[in-house]
Amino acid sequence: MKVLVTGGTGYIGSHTVVELQQGGFEVIIVDNLSNSYESVVDNIEKITGIKPGFEKFDLTDRDKTLDFLKHHKDLKGVIHFAASKSVGESVEKPLKYYHNNLLSLIYLLEGMVQNNIDNIVFSSSCTVYGQPDELPVTEKAPIKKAWSTYGHTKQISEQIIENTSISNGIKGILLRYFNPIGAHDSVLIGELPIGSPDNLIPFITQTAIGKREVLRVFGDDYDTPDGTAVRDYIHVVDLAKAHVVALNRMITGKNQAKVEIFNLGTGWGHSVLEVINTFEKISGVKLNYRITERRPGDIEKVWADTQFANQELGWKASKGLEEMILSAWNWELELKKRV
Ligand code: NAD
Ligand code: WQD
Q1: b (16+ CB within 10 A) / e for 274-299
Q2: CB 44 within 8 A of CB 189
Q3: Is there a single domain that holds both residue 152 and residue 240?
Q4: Are residues 73 and 215 in the same domain?
Q5: pLDDT at 194
């Protein structure tokens, strides 16, 4: 059973390739290496004993994408991770985000329709909900005006897949990730943020290891128990496993609609200070942090209602906050050894 993983050398993609191979799939990765390294392919092989196929090209190159799919008509499905993902950069360079995130999806779908490749799993995000009116947020919550161009590309992408499925054989599962963190237990793959990270967990571990001087906590005046913002952090391997379930669901015809949407979170919200305290406890390192202004565009609190995913997919996140943060810390310690 052959499957295409776009963005498969990236953070979530690489962990998903491992789970797919361990689930019996033959994987071909397409990645332009704009935010990842080819060495990830070898590290995947070290974990699974199987080297995934790898082709380096840009999915916004229509001819290359259509040509690739023409030569891989036997694909059972596509898992589409490839996208630009920095919220801040998307506000500064909106056209880069519309171009990369939308064209890559459009050409992929065009090639899938041409070659009767039916199943797509798409990386969406909880960012499509903005600040939900009710928590935990369910998949039925209204989609509000996007807070960033990045978020807008995820909303439009979901719509593109839904509309494309109406007129042909395409089936899709849209997975709305909450906040993925941590790394593979082998510490052979993990997140490799280029430059200064935007996200909380890599910023914490980089500060603790001495790569960053101070961690800024963006606001302590939110309407939350300790005043800092609350998120639903989920381990990347738990997330990866859900992709294998989603793909199998479509291949075996268990999907209840042509396009289905699932929240991928733990169902638990944790505040920034709770994350910092947990990190200090498990690592024994005192973090240099200070409270600053709120970060523009941040929402106050969000966590997932995971009932639908738990019941329908038979999938549930297994790792708690301490285990996830330890996993992220072990990865940072491993990166230190590599330099
Ligand atoms: P990542 O940057 O590590 O991986 C994305 C990969 O896609 C990279 O390897 C990059 O080189 C590749 N890529 C980008 N544009 C491409 C193109 N045009 N052609 C070919 N390859 C291309 O990001 P990630 O954290 O693994 O995220 C994967 C997906 O999940 C993205 O769609 C992202 O928007 C989504 N997502 C991520 C998070 C998160 O916090 N990490 C949360 C929700 C959703
Ligand atoms: C978490 C919390 C920050 C850094 C983003 C995207 C979202 C999704 C995941 C892709 C917030 C606070 C952070 C720091 C801090 N990505 N923080 N100091 O903003 O929930 O989500 O990544 O789809 O779309 O928006 O994640 O890790 O940046 O922040 O205090 O140095 O940590 O304010 O409350 P976020 P994050």
Answers
A1: bbbebbbebbebebebeeeeeeeeeb
A2: yes
A3: yes
A4: no
A5: 82
Residue whose Cα lies nearest atom 35 of ligand 1: it is 123
pLDDT tens sequence across 319-335: 999 999 999 999 999 99
Domain count, the chain: 2
**Nearest-CA neighbor of 287 among 228, 206, 219?**
206
pLDDT in tens, 125-146: 999 999 999 999 999 999 999 9
Q: 190 in ligand 1 pocket by Cβ < 6 Å?
A: no
Q: Which ligand is nearest to the CA of 176?
A: 1
In a domain, 74, yes or no: yes
Q: Looking at the structure, do residues 170 and 55 belong to the same domain, yes or no?
A: yes
pLDDT of residue 43: 98
Select from 65, 84, 97, 123 the residue to mutate for testing ligand 1; criterion: most ligand atoms less than 8 Å from CB.
Answer: 123
Asked, for residue 173, whether it belongs to a domain, the answer is: yes
Helix (H, G, I), strand (E, B) or coil at 282: helix
Say whether pLDDT at 339 is over 80: no
CATH at 160 = 3.40.50.720
pTM exceeds 0.90: yes
Q: Residues 21-63: pLDDT tens digits?
A: 999 999 999 999 999 999 999 999 999 999 999 999 999 999 9
Tell me the CA–centroid distance for residue 113 and ligand 1, in Å: 23
**Ligand nearest to the Cα of 8, by number:** 1
Q: Whose CA is nearest to atom 1 of ligand 2?
A: 200
Residues 253 and 281 in one domain: no
Residues annotated as part of the active site: 150
SS3 call for 47? helix
Q: Which structural domain, as residue segments, surrounds residue 8? A: 2-181+233-264
Q: In angstroms, rounded to a whole number, what is the distance separating the alpha carbons of residues 124 and 154?
A: 6
